[in-house]
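Deadline looming. Please check this record:
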Amino acid sequence: MDDKLMLMIPGPTPVPERVLQAMAKHPIGHRTGEFSEIVAAVDVDLKWLHQTQNDVLVVAASGTGAMEAGIINFFSAGDRVLVCGNGKFGDRWIKLAKAYGLNVEVMQEDWGKPLDPDAIGAILQADTGKTIKGVVFTHSETSSGVLNDLAAINRHVKDHGEALIIVDAVTSLGAISVPVDELELDVVASGSQKGYMIPPGLGFVSVSAKAWAAYDKATLPKFYFDLGTYRKNAAKNLTPFTPPINLYFALQASLQMMRQEGLESIFARHSRLQAATRAGVKALGFGLFAPDSHASPAVTAATPPEGIAAGDISKILSKRFDISIAGGQDHLKGKIIRIGHLGFISDRDVLMTIAALEATLLELGYTGFTPGSGVAAAAKAFQ
């Protein structure tokens, strides 16, 4: 049956009908008072979502573009930065920082293991000359389903005093609390196709006063991603370049929906979805790739039961049930599945996915579970 695709991947995520309808409106001029009113309304709601009074700037880019903006605006060539990686996206920031000629110190953990805040703290404490200008890491590591301890890492950065904390919150913003002002986070980057519940194409960068002070001294080249230009325009409810107007329509609608649900309810829903998904796949004989203590609210990574190929699971779910899940990346390709439960996802979506996963395992000849146990475990977690 056509048009029944169910997206259960870490992104892009499903888009609500109300948001799709908003996108379908005829474009308007981006230099009109009408569009400026949308920019102003979106700015208020973005600050609400980020729990901040800092600037939250919008760029026409993916989350990677937002993160690149978060690097090039606050450093100069040769600056020493500590980049912490425990998955594909942590590795991406290492490559990004090196591409701009930064002096990159890498703190690496195995995929599936959380970053060790104390190890980060030890590196920062040893930096008595205060030469480390920034600490960069991914909050929710999508490739492995690990949630890194933002608050603990942040405490060590604050103790250092000099370094900026730069956070990739692409799959955590809108799924778990990222209290920018409470934690005094300097740069927080995110993307529209995750918790924001709209299609890809917009990136968001929250910038603190401390980061703006670093901006004034930074000399890395920038033009399109010069956040100072975005800041000046945002003060007048404008954008420096032609924006994707219809994505602004979508963003306004999605943020209104999020306001109606409320931050605590959004975070509680994602926590519930995470718990139910993990309980469901575990009952079916899957191994959980990330520890319970550091499980991402956005995605669950799991290793299939022995003798069952991850790729076969994805193929049958797609072909028979029109449910799309993600596989492993890089060296985990073919070894894990990843089920997204981020953004416009409900309890029903998780139950349907677990039920389809049970049917898929049976079709593959796996009998190492009691039929119905996955759905029962997920349902119990919801209770």
Notes: The radius of gyration is 21 Å.
